[in-house]
Amino acid sequence: MSGLYLNYCFCSLTDSDTDVFSIDYINHEQLSSLRKEYKDICFYRSGNVIYFWSLKSFDNVLAESLSTVKVNINPTEYPSVVSKMLENRIYDLFKTTEAYDLYYEKYSHNLVAKKKSPIYKDDALCVFQCAKISTYFFRQDDKIHFGFSVSSSLDYCFNWTKRDFANHNIDCGGLFENKSGTVAANTRALTRYKEARGLSHKLDKIKLDAENKAKQFSFTKKVISWLQKGLIGQLYGNIKITDCVNNYFPYDKVFENEIIAAPKKYYANDQVISALPSVALEKVGPYTAVSNDTVRTITLVASKEYEGTLNVFTKQLATKIKKMFRLDLKYECSWVEKESVQSFGEAILDLNAKNSDLVILVIKKVPVSSAAFDAIADYPFEQQSYQRLYDVYNEMRIQNTPLSEPGIVGYHAKAKTLYDSLRQRQKDYPQRLADGETLEALAEETWQLLCDNA
Description:
Blueprint: E1 4-13, E2 18-24, H1 28-37, E3 41-46, E4 49-54, H2 62-65, E5 69-73, H3 79-95, E6 100-104, E7 111-115, E8 120-121, E9 125-140, E10 143-158, H4 162-167, H5 187-196, H6 200-211, H7 213-231, E11 233-236, E12 239-249, E13 266-267, E14 271-272, H8 277-284, E15 295-303, H9 307-325, E16 328-336, H10 341-349, E17 358-361, H11 384-399, H12 411-434, H13 439-452
Parallel strand pairs: 15-16, 15-17
Antiparallel strand pairs: 1-10, 1-12, 2-4, 2-5, 3-4, 6-7, 7-9, 8-9, 9-10, 11-12, 13-14
């Protein structure tokens, strides 16, 4: 790609004054109640004040029934209010078409315009393309810039309930339902659905296509161009939008969509090798040496008890660096008496960094690899609880064999049935024991339940 595309459309506004109204903010319930009752009025909270204005006309009938204050605003002194007006204007533009459904994201409050026609649809799932619009303003010197950005995304929607999932032998444990009763299309639900119905390839391809940078650029540019044409004109009251500009760098030239070839990697004697850099470096060496000095100094900061281990590490590192970069290593060591943040800090401060090309800090690491389990008995744990924890890990490793999740059709449904049955019986077990049933009888009953659902 030649240049830099700014996903931000600058909107030039007249610095005119216009009137809105305000009331004191009391609590969230007050604000929610006002928004629910007066659909044609925009309520915008800023600190302890709620500003409001009509979305359809400039006669605020509500102002007569509330203890309001008329506020004279302009883009310079009230940029956040004006930015909200710009958002309303964009919302109204999308409403003029019948191609989109509009809503606000729950936490980010971005405006989302979702295309009504899905790009994929089956009996349970629909996938929609969305445009997310965010309005922003920022200050540069004494000037305030207003504008908006557009991004693309996908919206997945199920029309199945959890019962529908279970009826199709798809595990619905841990899935959430929307207010409408349908399953929320989160990552867990989508993964189970596409794997159970053999749709992984098709749905993954749709996702990859949507994430293609060229297609994202084409989509956002199209949406921005459409908004640019529609926004010119009156914003609210005396404030007008005079221009909308989408900038490109460098020099505002039109951004050309093109594929950049992978860069060539040159090694010693101008050789080009199609291999991993580590392999190519070992084979022919680096392109050129930085200087005639082929010795590099590495300082190790570590506890004295690791001296034996570090001897092995330093030899291996020196061999690798020699092979790849044709450099020789010289080591200097700075030993600390006690492993603590303070001790390491003091040791680093005492170093003359100018004499080292690299400083390596060696700290303690609890063994967790498979080969390290044999050394647990001799490891000096700081706390006994850590010792017990790794003893349990080691015991599990010795006595148990890990299994992958089975791919049996209906497995998750059976597991859920067993889980629900066990949870239900668990509630009754204390009372049944109190009534005289034996623990052995309850255990046998539970075992039989497991066998019946196997």
